[in-house]
Amino acid sequence: MGIRIYNDAGTPINLLPDRIKTGTGNARGWYGYKDLTTRVSSGSVETYSGDFTASLEAIGGQTVTAGSVNAQLQAVVSFQ
């Protein structure tokens, strides 16, 4: 089983496609925060919010068995 994360439009997002290759763009796990969030405040402080859905899904080629999952997501945000 794997956990797939979807943005608010229902599109899956790549957070860590693999641990071997590096690169740029969405395919390699890089997103602009404005692409995944909406501005929810005005004034001198800008606040952005985003809705995401986590889905427990079978990984192709693997047998699914009953059990439980304990998962954690760590998101690293970098502003340039």
UniProtKB/TrEMBL annotation:
Stretches that traverse the bilayer: none
A cellular component annotation (GO) from this entry: pilus
InterPro entries reported for this sequence: Adhesion_dom_fimbrial, Adhesion_dom_fimbrial_sf, Adhesion_dom_sf
UniProt organism field: Salmonella enterica subsp. enterica serovar Inverness str. R8-3668
Protein name: Putative fimbrial protein
Coiled coil ranges: none
Residue ranges annotated for the Fimbrial-type adhesion domain, each copy included: 1-80
Superkingdom classification of source: Bacteria
Signal peptide: none
GO biological processes: cell adhesion
Alphabetized Pfam families for the sequence: Fimbrial
